[in-house]
């Protein structure tokens, strides 16, 4: 199976997937890494791993539709079985999401359905919550609202800052995202009637 990974930044989740492939845990190939930002460090990680990269600068497009159309064409050119969003910080048009329905995953740093959107770590701390975490889900038109496949929890500690909490969440991200990608490429994971099924079960 072929993956295309979309990033906007650091790319540590991309790195975790690359390493899982290299270690033989995921039998897939990353055909390309595409970033909407030229300065994304993940582009370097991809290049270091010998993976082709592309940059599609969203600010060069007149509208969200025009950007999504161009991005869709670039992604399609690699014929991926799965599109992996790994810190891709753009909201998609419904048409884009529809096109990749059932074959696009996202990782979101919260225990969904809690804390959709950005600045999740900060908001958890502001709310005085004692539990936080990360979710991997299928992408549907509702932002961060698609069916959750796997979550990992982390405690919120009294000594936490936004950075410390984010770091603790990241450790879990790098554990669960490769695992879910593995399930997908093995054909064990499907989106059916709006539900995520693993081995045919919810
Ligand atoms: C992660 O926190 C992920 O949950 C969120 O964006 C961040 C990406 O981190 N969607 P990285 O670029 O993979 O290091």
Automatic annotation (TrEMBL):
Binding site for (6R)-10-formyltetrahydrofolate: 64, 106
Leading EC class: transferase
Record-linked InterPro entries: Formyl_transf_N (IPR002376), Formyl_transf_N_sf (IPR036477), GART (IPR004607)
Single biological process term from Gene Ontology: 'de novo' IMP biosynthetic process
Cellular component GO terms held in the UniProt record: cytosol
Domain Formyl transferase N-terminal: residue ranges: 3-181
Binding locations of N(1)-(5-phospho-beta-D-ribosyl)glycinamide: 11-13
Gene Ontology molecular functions: phosphoribosylglycinamide formyltransferase activity
EC number: 2.1.2.2
Pathway: Purine metabolism; IMP biosynthesis via de novo pathway; N(2)-formyl-N(1)-(5-phospho-D-ribosyl)glycinamide from N(1)-(5-phospho-D-ribosyl)glycinamide (10-formyl THF route): step 1/1
Catalytic-site annotation from UniProt: 108 (proton donor)
Catalytic activity: N(1)-(5-phospho-beta-D-ribosyl)glycinamide + (6R)-10-formyltetrahydrofolate = N(2)-formyl-N(1)-(5-phospho-beta-D-ribosyl)glycinamide + (6S)-5,6,7,8-tetrahydrofolate + H(+)
Site (Raises pKa of active site His): 144
Keywords assigned by UniProt, alphabetized: Purine biosynthesis, Transferase
Pfam short name (any one): Formyl_trans_N
Entry similarity comment: Belongs to the GART family.
Physiological role: Catalyzes the transfer of a formyl group from 10-formyltetrahydrofolate to 5-phospho-ribosyl-glycinamide (GAR), producing 5-phospho-ribosyl-N-formylglycinamide (FGAR) and tetrahydrofolate.
PANTHER family in the record: PHOSPHORIBOSYLGLYCINAMIDE FORMYLTRANSFERASE
Stated name of the protein: Phosphoribosylglycinamide formyltransferase
Source organism of this protein record: Thiothrix nivea (strain ATCC 35100 / DSM 5205 / JP2)
Lineage of source species: Bacteria, Pseudomonadati, Pseudomonadota, Gammaproteobacteria, Thiotrichales
Gene it is expressed from: purN
